[in-house]
Each structure stands twice: as structure tokens, then as C-alpha cells.
């Protein structure tokens, strides 16, 4: 029992996080920046931060992840990191030649008070930024927010630096996909193309972090939103933001900077949230929903119909990020499952009330906490187990110790493949989620049910 | 120094050399070039990987959540008993703590954890931000130690103070504070401490078994499957055997000075180094343990007799294949060069994140003509070397794996993510099997680069 040190008795903790259900802002900023074409993310801090983020993203996506670091030393931490950043900018443009350097700060550079725009201006004045190249930035101290807010901040920086509202409106919409997998971004684009909608998606990590084996190592992959496309976002007809926490700030920034109206939706995970997404697209873009999409919806509904008895009253424990959990909990409730434990590491009162609203008809006490951790989640399970857990790889300890079926969902997934290739958003993503849930529940049932109730046909 | 391939970074020219082209001249152990995509990590990382396998100690990371989250059980260091080290404890510093200081929070977190888990000692890791806001880590640790009656040790591992090597030093200092306090009764004249083995995939158990068969008593594992009480009485050992030179050499030196314990540098990777390590130890004890050399020879002979035919099978298929090595510490690279030679393979590239000039000199001496030797490399360089040398397998860590795979080159993780024990004689077989499984995989036949050639 790897987690034998978890106690059943729950005491309130104020000074301590055990087995976090979150990580720090910079990694989210780095992930978002990887969704810009020809962009090198840059960590303005110690070498370790950059190394950890690259390692974690590499373990999750099984792809090379490139990023620069200012490589702070003792001197930089005393006298400021300006010299390091200017040298880094020079080195990066000279050697790697990206279009964009996306700088994010760390706890160290924030606390010593480095002013990134001022340093970038200095670098420009010194001739270190070639024409047509850009240095953008996001303030992401690790002691504020989580990886999700880091993603949101860097995504908003794309608007702040690039969006323009010159000239006439363009017949396209902006899509901000949220802190989701490259496969999810690809799926959203596929749905849009089915509906015949032109769009700019940002960030877009598809074909960056799920690219094919080509026998080549490309420092800058084919995918990612281009700077030119980002410029046009200010002239789009509307913005649809998926996920309030991860995408809301960028959508609102576009609205106030370029007067592009926005609709901020939940992530399209599950039947109802995807309905809302498709319906919004239809309404905003004045298109009709094609038969192919209706068909997918029907297939998702068909699986739920065929297997509804196996979902009935199953208790589920969820750990993950707020945007994901809101949609996932709604999906589970809609198929008659009971999400009774919901933990996110990201603070926010709205999250708790939203989950309460979604689960108000669940005939069981529902525990929900924003700013919680997996130790607490495990303690809840020790007091009353669940039938299924969904969350990132770290739940595997609890799954093993408590013998509870487990579906990997969220970030990071360090021990399985598939998440970067197969989506969980949209109707087809919903079908994949159901397949995973049923596999976990029914495999368990097949393994442990007594012979007299072991069934061939389910 | 001249190079035949284009230099990617002019500034790094003297950190790359090719054997046979000019005299040995390596300018290593310098700060990474800002902006270069370095594969290096920080001081905290170094301290954390060294201390974390001590399984009955509490490991509390004082800082924002990231530092704790990214080091949560990343190494798979196994324990035969408690598993406290595999939990992630953090003070999770927030903005208000940065403004008002985190000492109070640290005190409360420590007190609560010690009450609940009753660890034998606590290590408190400092992170970048703690160094900046000036929390008095040592004072809090002293206070809690006095109140709770266990050693509470500050680890001064602020990330910006250097790279992993400085972190190893901070870890050694913290461990050294534990030593000298424990009861040494029951330790015989043939007592040793194992330094620099982290029990990845259960490796230290293999090594301990060899020592036991030689009649040697292991006093303390430092740090794989480590225990606080063992560390506290480690000064009762007659000898320190030190692997992974970077990580625990400083501790060995401190113990030599304070307790007069001599040390031997060893390596458990590869047949040659494994056997030589055992012989070195036997030679050391021979004056007081007659017959130990015979026992050791018998052990080695027995192991080799079992191993050799199996190894030959792999060698038949692997002979002539080309290998590249890029690892954290150079000491491991020495053993790997020899291990590949044992398999009939050719090492065409070898490098490390933190090697010293001495290390690179040794690499220069043991490698073949034309081998590229590199310090603190980066993905662009590594990928260009891999292509230039048409490498069949690359040995590295987590960030190198996908680069190799994208190029259509086999890979072996000789770092945190090893799944099989690679130490000892059995480890050589596992290593051969792992190399074989990757080099001979049919997948490379489908890779575009290979298809074209």
C-alpha cells in the first residue's frame, strides 16, 4: 500500500497541501505558447522550472517539448534578470529563429520585480529583436493561481499583443478551445468544418504535441496558430470561448480591445455541453446543423440508451481542473451517475456552487472542494468508497490501494497513450468517454463477479 | 579545436570535442547559455532526487506548489518498508505568504505533519522564492526539532544557486547533520555504507546481496531504501563505497574528514565495473578479512558463468551497432561506454549535464577515435549528432526520449524512468535486453528516414 500513510480521520489543514490536484502557472503558460506556430516558450527564472515543465509536458504528450530559460543564477536573483533575458532573446533569435518568443515569469522573477515589457523594449532598442519577430509575455508567478490560470494568462497575452481591429470584419469566428488536449482542439476544428464555419483557433496545439513520426526532429512543428491569424482575431465576427477559467479572460480581452462579441461556454464534454456548443455555433454563425453532426449526436445517445442500466446510481469521484469537471459532472449526472466527490486544486467559490447546482438532484451527499488535494480526496474515499474514479495519473495510487476502477482523464496522464490522439470533447469525444467508463466498470465486474452472475452478454 | 560538423552555438564550441581532432580541451562546469534549450535542472532538483529515497523521513517542500508537484514520486525509488517519501508535501506558498513571509506556515505544516506521520526525521527543502523572501528556514527547523524531539534539517536548495550539482551538495550537508548521533553497537569490522545508489527498480537490494555474500555488512543505504536511524549510525562503518560521483562524493569527503572513514569510488553498471568494484572492496578488507578475495572471485565467477552465455546471444545481434550517451553525471557515462563495448557496440557520442574537466578527460581516454564528447548539450545539437553518426540507440533521460524517437532511433532510459534494475551482473543482462528490445524493434523499419536510405 503506497498510500498507507493516508489517515481516515479528516482534520482541517491550512498550511499544507498533500498530493496536489494542481500545479503551478508557468507550465500552463508554456503549454499555451506551444500552440503558437513558430514560437519558442521561454521561462524567465531558474533552470529547474523550465526543465520540470518540459519533462512533465514530455511525459504527458510523449513529444519533444522545446523551451528556453533565462537560467537565473545567484547574481541575477540579486541584480535582476534583465541581462539574462536580453541575452536569451539574442541567442534564441540568432540560433533558433522563431517568429515569437513567449516569455512567462516565475515566482523568482516576479518577486525580484523584473518588468518583462521594459526588458523587451530594451532588447528591441539594442537591436536584438529582428524585424517581424515578436517577444510577448505573461505574468505567471507560481504562488498565484494554478496551471489553468497560467494557460489563461498566456492565451490572453496572444490577444493583448496581436489582435487588431483594422479594416472590415472578416467572415470568421475565433475559437478559444480551453486547456484541453491537442486531440480535442482537432475535434473542435472538425466540428466547425462540418458546420462550414471559418475560424481561427488559439492556442492550437494540434500537430504540435500529437504529431506523427516522420523520422525528422523539427524544433518548430507544423501546427499552431500563426501570428497573421492571431492578428485577424480582432476582425472576427465573434469569439466562442470554451471553458470559463481557461478561455474567459482572452475572450473578454478581445471584446474590450477589438469589440469582438464573445460567448463563453462550458467545455463541450458530454451531450448537453456539446449541444450548447453546436447550438451556439449555429446561432452565432447562422448555419444549419448538418446531418453528419446530428448523426454523431444520435450515436452518442444510442450508447447511453443501450447501456444506461450500467450507469445507474454509480458513485464517482472526480479530481481535475474546474472547466473539465463542470462539464464532466454534468455529463455524468445526465447519464444517471452520481459524482459524489469533486476536487480541484484551483480555488474558486463559483466552482463549488456550480457543481452543487449540477448535482442538486443526486440522491446522495456530494462533497466538493475548490483548492483541495488528493490526500483529502483519498480520505473521503476511505470513509466511503466510490464505484469509479476519474482524474489524472496520480489517482492510480488510490485506485490500486482501494481497488477502485479508474478512468484517466485530465492533466497530467503520464502512463497511458491515446489522450493526445482521441478527443473527449464533442459527441464523438462523449462516445469515447463512455467507452472508457464502461470498460472500467464492466472489466471490474467481469473480474470480480461470482460465477453465478458472470454474464457473456451485457 | 576543430569540428567537421557545423557548430550550432559559437559560444559552446569549447564544450564539444571530437576525439582525434586536436588536443583535449573541454571548458565545462560553466553556467548554461541563457536562451539555449538546456537539458539541465536546478539546485532543488538535485537535492530532492538525492534525499527523497529516505523512506521514513518527512520531505516537506517549502515553496509554491510546482516544486512539490513536479517531484512527486518521479523517480520510483523503492522502499522495503515505509512509503512516506512517495507522498508530496508542500507549504503551497500563496501571494500573501510571499508578502508577509512563510515562516508561520512552515511551522504549522511541519508540526501537523510530524504529529500525524511520526517520521524519524524531517527534511525541509528551500526553493527559489524562500531564498528571496528570506524565511529563516534554519531557525524554524531548530524550533520544531526542539519541540518534537526529531532531527529537522533545512536543505538549502534555492533553485537559482546553480545546477543539480550544488543541490547534491546541499543534500549532503543535510544528511551529514544526522551522522554521528546514532548507536554504532552491532557494527562489525566489515561494515560499509553504500553511497550514491537510489534503489531505482530495486537495484540496491541486488548490490547488498553481493556484499552479504562477501561477508560484508551494510550499515546504511545512502540513500536508496534509506532509513534515518541507519544514517545516524553510518559513522560506525569502516568504508564508504560511493557510486554516482556527483551526488554523494561530497558526503564521502565530509565523512572522511569528520570520522576518518575512507571511501572508494565504484560503479555497479556493466560487468567490468561491477566486478572491479567488488574486488576493490575485497582488497580493502583483505588485511582484516583473509579469504574475502576468494569469496569475491567465486561470486564474480558464479555470476559471470551464468551471465555470459545469455549476454553472448544479445551480442551476436547487437555487435557493430552504434550508441549515443547523454546522461546527468559523467561517472555513469564511463560505465556505459564499457558496457556497450561488452556488447560489441560502438559509442559514437557521449555527454553529460554536469561533468567536470577530470570526467571529460577520462571519457576522452576511454572512447574511440571520432567519438563526440559534449558538455551541457541541447536538443538541436543532440539531434544533429544523432543524424550525423547514424545512431542505433540513444541512452538518456526523459527529455531526450522523444527526440530520439522522432528521428527513428532506439532509446534506453538510464535515469529516473528505468523500469528494470540495470545495476549488478543481472543488471547488465537487463541492460542488454533493453538495448536489444529497442535497437532490434521492427518499428525502425517503418521510419521514413531509414526507409529512404
Feature tags:
heterodimer, A: 458 residues, alpha/beta, Rossmann fold, 3 domains, 4-stranded parallel β-sheet, 17 helices, B: 453 residues, 6-stranded mixed β-sheet, 14 strands, globular
In words, what does this structure look like?
The complex is a heterodimer of chains A (458) and B (453). Chain A has helices spanning 25-33, 47-61, 74-79, 82-96, 107-111, 116-125, 147-162, 182-194, 227-232, 244-258, 271-285, 291-311, 322-334, 349-358, 374-383, 396-402, 426-448, and strands at 17-18, 39-44, 68-69, 100-105, 134-138, 173-176, 199-201, 238-242, 262-265, 315-320, 338-344, 367-370, 388-391, 406-408. Chain A is α/β, with parallel strands linked by helices and 458 residues long. Chain A has a 5-stranded parallel beta sheet, sandwiched between helices. In chain A, strands 3-2-4-5 form a 4-stranded parallel beta sheet, with helices on both faces. In chain A, strands 7-6-8-9 form a 4-stranded parallel beta sheet, sandwiched between helices. In chain A, helix 1 (25-33) packs across helix 2. The longest helix of chain A is centred in the C-terminal third of the chain and has 23 residues, at 426-448. The radius of gyration of chain A is 23 Å and the shape is globular. In chain B, 45% of the residues lie in helices and 15% in strands. Chain B contains 18 helices and 14 strands. In chain B, strand 2, helix 2 (65-70) and strand 3 form a beta-alpha-beta unit. Chain B is globular. Chain B starts with 15 loop residues before the first strand and ends with a helix. Strand 1 of chain A pairs antiparallel with strand 3 of chain B, so a sheet runs across the interface.
CATH architecture of the largest domain in chain B: 3-Layer(aba) Sandwich
Average of pLDDT of chain B: 92
User: How many beta-strand segments of chain B?
Assistant: 14
What's the number of structural domains of chain B?
Answer: 3
How many angstroms separate the termini of chain B? 32 Å
Arrangement of strands in the largest sheet of chain B: 1-12-11-10-13-14
The number of helices of chain A is 17
What is the global morphology of chain B? globular
Separation of termini of chain A? 33 Å
Give the largest chain-chain interface (CB within 8 Å): A-B, 82 and 81 residues
Binned, the helix content of chain A reads 40-55%
Percent of residues in helices of chain B: 40-55%
Number of strands of chain A: 14
Strand content of chain A: 5-15%
Write the CATH architecture name of the largest domain in chain A.
3-Layer(aba) Sandwich
Going by helix content, strand content and strand pairing, the class of chain A is alpha/beta
CATH class of the largest domain in chain B: Alpha Beta
